[in-house]
C-alpha cells in the first residue's frame, strides 16, 4: 500500500509561466535536435506545438473524458496555454492511457498551471494516480498565487502495454481537477535498476546540479529530459576542466549537470544541507555524483568519506577526473538532511560534490490480475458509452475503482462483480468477458446491449447473471448450463430465439427467467 497521502511528498520546482526560457529560445534558433523518446502531451490542445526540440501533441488520442479549456494569460508557454479539466463529480477518476512497453522504465511527469481558468480564486486540491498506485495530492495553491506552474515526477515500470495517469477527486476537492501537460519519457534499463519496480516506484523529491547557477538543466543536455535545478549554498564552487562522459556514470547524468561543484579547501570537511527542505520520515533512494575538476594526471586524486545525518554513506571514495557515482538504494531520512564529506588526511585538495538526486520510495498499490485487466478493457471498448471512469486500473486504488466494479482483497486483485443495471448502455459483450474467472455476479439489466450472449464456460464461480431488459439476440449459449454455481439467470425481455438448452431446464436450484423472447 502507498504511504498515507500526507507523507507522499513529490516536491516540485516552480517554473515561470510568463515566457519561454532563454534556453528554449536558443533551441528554436539552433539546428534541430532529435526528440527524446516518449510521449509529450499538451492537455486540452487541438494542434501540435513545437517548443525547442520537443513536439507536443494534443491529448485527444489519450483520454475520452473531460473538457478542454484555454488559459487567458498573456505570453505564457504554449504548453501552459491550454488544459483539460474534469467537471463530472460522479466519476471516481479521470485517466489518460499512454502506450508503453511492458517491463520498460519511464519517467512520468505531470504539469499544472491553474491560471484561474474556471474563474475561481484558488485551484482545487485533488489526487493523482499512476496505474493502480496513489501517487500524491496535487495542491498548486502556492504556485498559483505567484503565477507559476508546478510539476511532479515519478520513475515507474510499465506493467502492461500501456500506463495510465489519472486524476481523482478528494473529499476536500471543491472544483474541477485539471492538468496542463503529461510526459512519459523512455529510460534505459540500466537507469535506477537497483530498485525493484515490481514493488516500488520512485517519486522525485529533487535533482540538483551543485555549484550551478541560472536556469534548470534539461533537454537537450539531458537526453531523458530530467530537470536538474541549480544548487548553491555558502560553500565555494568550482568548475570542471576535464571532459565528462555521461556514459561513465550510472543513471547517465548530463555532462552539464556535473560541470560545476561545491567544494572546500584542503583538509576541511565539507558540509552541505541538501535537499534544502525538511523531509517526512520515509525511505529514500539517494544518488550522489562526483568528478575531480582538474585535468587528469597521476596526482589528480581526492579521497574522502561520505555520511548523511551522521551515518556512513560511503567510505574512501576517490573522486577522479573520470568521475564516480555512489548511491543508497534505501535510506531512511527525516527532517533536515546533512551531507558531510570528510577528507583523507593526506589528500592534497578538499572534497567536492557535483550533483545529487533523491527520490521517495513509494510501494506499488497492488496489482489487478492481468487477465482481468485485459477483459475489462475489452468490455470498455465494446460498450459505446461506458461510465466516464472506465480507464486505468479497474480495481485500484480501491476508492477509485471503476463504477459498478467490485474487486477482491487478494493479490493479485480479482474482479468479482459487475453492476451496471439501468445505465443506458449500448454495445455488446466481448468474448473475453469469459476470462473474468473470478466473477461472482453480473448485473446488466435494463440497458440496450445487443449481439449474442458470449461463452461463459470459464466463469465457474458465477452465481448470478442478469441480462434482462436488453436487446441480446440469437440462441442462449449452452455454456451457461455448465456453470455449477449458477443460481440466477435472468434473460427475459430480449430478442433471443431457438431452444432453451436442456442443461438449463433441468439445472437444480436455478432461478431462470426467459419470458419476452422467442424461445422454445
UniProtKB/TrEMBL annotation:
Instruction: Please provide an example of a Pfam family that matches this protein in its UniProt record.
Output: LRR_1
Which residue ranges traverse the bilayer?
none
Would you tell me the Gene Ontology cellular component terms?
A: membrane
Gene3D superfamilies for the chain: Galactose-binding lectin, Ribonuclease Inhibitor
Decide whether keyword Transport is in the record.
no
Concerning InterPro entries, the annotation shows:
Leu-rich_rpt, LRR_dom_sf, Malectin-like_Carb-bd_dom
Where's it found, cell-wise?
A: Membrane
How does it sit in the bilayer? Single-pass membrane protein
Give the protein's recorded name.
Malectin-like domain-containing protein
Amino acid at each position: 500500500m502507498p504511504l498515507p497521502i500526507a507523507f507522499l511528498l513529490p516536491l516540485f520546482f516552480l517554473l515561470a509561466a510568463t515566457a519561454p526560457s532563454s534556453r528554449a529560445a536558443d533551441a528554436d534558433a539552433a539546428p534541430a535536435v532529435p526528440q527524446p523518446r516518449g510521449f509529450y502531451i499538451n492537455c486540452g490542445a487541438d494542434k501540435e506545438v513545437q517548443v525547442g526540440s520537443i513536439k507536443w501533441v494534443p491529448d485527444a488520442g489519450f483520454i475520452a473524458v473531460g473538457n478542454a479549456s484555454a488559459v487567458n494569460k498573456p505570453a505564457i508557454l504554449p504548453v501552459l496555454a491550454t488544459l483539460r479539466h474534469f467537471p463530472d463529480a460522479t466519476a471516481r477518476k479521470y485517466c489518460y492511457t499512454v502506450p508503453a512497453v511492458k517491463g520498460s522504465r519511464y519517467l512520468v511527469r505531470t504539469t499544472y498551471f491553474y491560471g484561474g481558468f474556471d474563474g475561481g480564486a484558488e485551484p482545487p486540491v485533488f489526487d493523482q494516480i499512476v496505474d493502480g498506485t496513489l501517487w500524491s495530492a496535487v495542491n498548486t495553491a502556492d504556485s498559483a498565487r505567484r503565477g507559476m506552474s508546478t510539476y511532479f515526477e515519478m520513475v515507474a515500470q510499465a506493467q502492461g502495454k500501456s500506463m495510465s495517469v489519472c486524476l481523482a477527486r478528494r473529499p476536500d476537492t471543491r472544483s474541477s481537477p485539471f492538468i496542463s501537460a503529461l510526459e512519459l519519457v523512455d529510460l534505459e534499463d540500466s537507469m535506477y535498476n537497483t530498485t525493484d519496480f515490481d514493488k516500488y516506484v520512485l517519486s522525485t523529491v529533487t535533482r540538483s546540479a551543485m555549484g550551478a547557477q541560472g536556469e534548470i538543466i534539461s533537454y537537450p543536455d539531458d537526453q531523458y529530459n530530467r530537470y536538474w535545478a541549480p544548487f548553491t549554498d555558502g560553500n565555494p564552487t568550482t568548475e570542471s576542466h576535464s571532459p565528462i562522459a555521461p556514459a561513465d556514470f550510472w543513471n547517465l547524468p548530463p555532462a552539464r549537470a556535473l560541470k560545476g561543484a561545491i567544494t572546500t579547501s584542503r583538509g576541511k570537511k565539507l558540509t552541505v544541507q541538501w535537499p534544502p527542505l525538511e523531509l517526512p520520515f520515509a525511505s529514500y533512494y539517494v544518488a550522489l555524483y562526483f568528478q575531480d575538476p582538474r585535468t587528469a594526471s597521476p596526482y589528480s586524486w581526492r579521497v574522502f568519506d561520505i555520511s548523511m545525518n551522521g551515518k556512513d554513506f560511503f567510505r574512501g571514495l576517490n573522486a577522479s577526473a573520470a568521475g564516480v557515482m555512489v548511491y543508497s538504494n534505501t535510506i531512511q531520512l527525516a527532517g533536515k538532511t546533512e551531507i558531510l564529506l570528510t577528507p583523507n588526511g593526506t589528500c592534497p585538495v578538499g572534497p567536492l560534490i557535483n550533483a545529487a538526486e533523491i527520490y521517495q520510495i513509494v510501494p506499488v498499490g497492488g496489482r489487478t490480475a492481468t487477465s482481468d485487466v485485459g477483459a475489462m478493457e475489452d468490455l470498455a471498448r465494446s460498450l459505446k458509452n461506458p461510465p466516464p471512469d472506465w480507464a486505468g486500473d479497474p480495481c485500484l486504488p480501491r476508492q477509485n475503482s471503476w463504477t459498478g466494479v467490485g474487486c477482491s482483497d487478494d493479490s493479485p486483485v480479482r474482479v468479482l462483480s459487475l453492476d451496471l443495471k439501468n445505465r443506458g448502455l449500448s454495445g455488446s459483450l466481448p468474448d473475453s468477458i469469459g476470462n473474468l474467472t473470478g466473477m461472482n455476479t453480473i448485473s446488466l439489466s435494463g440497458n440496450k446491449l445487443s449481439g449474442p450472449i458470449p461463452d461463459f464456460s470459464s466463469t465457474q464461480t458465477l452465481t448470478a447473471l442478469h441480462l434482462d431488459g436488453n436487446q441480446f439476440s440469437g440462441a442462449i449459449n449452452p455454456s451457461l448450463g455448465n456453470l455449477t454455481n449458477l443460481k440466477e439467470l435472468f434473460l427475459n425481455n430480449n430478442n433471443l430465439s431457438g431452444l432453451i438448452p436442456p442443461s438449463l431446464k433441468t439445472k437444480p436450484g436455478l432461478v431462470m427467467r426467459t419470458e419476452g423472447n422467442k424461445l422454445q
